[in-house]
Amino acid sequence: MSTLELKSVSRFFGAYAAIENFNLTVASGGRTAIVGPSGSGKTTLLRLIAGFEVPDLGTITLDGVTLAGDSTFVPAHRRVIGYVPQDGALFPHLSVAENIGFGLPRGTENRDRRIQELLEMVSLNASMASRWPHELSGGQQQRVALARALAQSPKLMLLDEPFSALDSGLRVSMRKAVSKVLSDAGVTAILVTHDQEEALSFGDQLAVIRQGRLVQAGAPKDLYLRPADEETAAFLGDALVFRAHVSNGWARCALGNVIAGNAALNGHAKILLRPEQLHLSRSTLFPNSADGCYGVVVGSDFGGDKCTVMVQLQAPLSEDELTIPVRVPAMDCPGPGTRVHILVSGTAHSFTADRRALSPS
Length: 361
Ligand code: ADP
Ligand code: MG
Hints:
Number of helices: 8
Distance between the termini: 33 Å
Structural class: alpha+beta
CATH class of the largest domain: Alpha Beta
CATH superfamily of the largest domain: P-loop containing nucleotide triphosphate hydrolases
Number of strands: 21
Helix content: 10-25%
Order of helices and strands: EEEHEEEEHHHEHEHEEHHEEEEEEEEEE
Bound molecules: adenosine-5'-diphosphate, magnesium ion
Strand content: 35-45%
CATH topology of the largest domain: Rossmann fold
Radius of gyration: 25 Å
CATH architecture of the largest domain: 3-Layer(aba) Sandwich
Strand order of the largest sheet: 7-8-9-3-10-11
C-alpha cells in the first residue's frame, strides 16, 4: 500500500504543456479514476508516474520517496509500479504464460506456480497458459496484461483505458472483476478513462483533467452533484443549467422555486440540476400551481428502460419558451401535446456568472 503525491508537475512537448501544474494525492489502497477528453494528457500523466516520461517541473513521490523531481529520477523498472498500457500491448510471439512471466526470474522453482496463481487471480483458466495472444478475446487479452503487471507485486497499478476496446456488457463485468482483483491484492490503483460512467463508478476518488490541468478532484458523488464548472457538469452526465435568482436559500428559475444548495448566495446565478431530479406527471390542472411548473410535451426519444421526453415550459415562469429533457420510465412515456407538471427534488447546485462553482455549496 502506498500514497502517491504529485506536486506542481508539468511536462512540456516543445512549447506545448501536455501536463501543467498538476497536483494530486492518491491515498494508500485507494482507487482513483482520472477522466478527461481525448488529448487532455491522461496517458502522459500515467507515463510520468510510471517513469516513462520525465517531468520538466514538480515532484512525484511514492510513500515519501521521491521518484522524480528535486534532481532525482528513479527509472521505471525500479519503481515497482504496474502499468497496463492503453492497448494491452501483449508480446505477440510469446504464449500467455510467457507474457505473464516476462518479468519473473527464469529457472526458479516458483515461476510456474506464480504464473498459475496470476492466471487464477484474473479468472483465466489454467488451460489458457499455452495459448497465443491472437487466440484470446479482447477481454482475455486485457486480463493477461493485468496479470503480467501484477506479477511484480506492484505497490501501485496504473490502468490506461483498459476497457475501451470491450463491448458494453463485458466492460462492466471486467471493471468489477479488475476492481476486486486490485482490492484483494491491496494494490493502490489509478484508472484513466474518457468514459464518465466508468469514472464515476471505479474509485473512491475522481479527478477531472482538461488541457493538461486538474480541474477538480474529490469523491465521485461530490463531483457529479457539485462540479467545479458547467463544462465539468456536462462532462460527467446530462446537465440542466438554468438562470436563477437566489434569495433566502431558494433559487427561482424556469422550473419554479428550487432549494439552493448554497444558502449563503443571494442574487443572480446559474444553477445545475440533473435530469433524475425532475419528476413529471400528466396534468389536468393547467396552467397554475404553487409548486413546480407546467409544460407541454413536444417530442420524445425512446431509450430502452428510460425514455427522454422533451417538454416545452410554459410562461409565466419561463421567459424564453425553454424546452428541456426529462427522463421517464418508458412505459409511462406521454405523447406529444400532453400537458405535464414538473416537480424538482433535491437541491440545485449554484454557479456564479464566471461559470465557477460557488463553494462551499
Ligand atoms: P490522452 O491520453 O488524454 O488522450 P495524451 O497524454 O496522449 O492524451 O496526449 C496529450 C497531448 O500531448 C496531446 O496533444 C498529444 O498530442 C501530446 N503528446 C503526447 N505525447 C507526445 C510526445 N511524445 N510528443 C509530442 N506531443 C505529445
Ligand atoms: Mg491516452
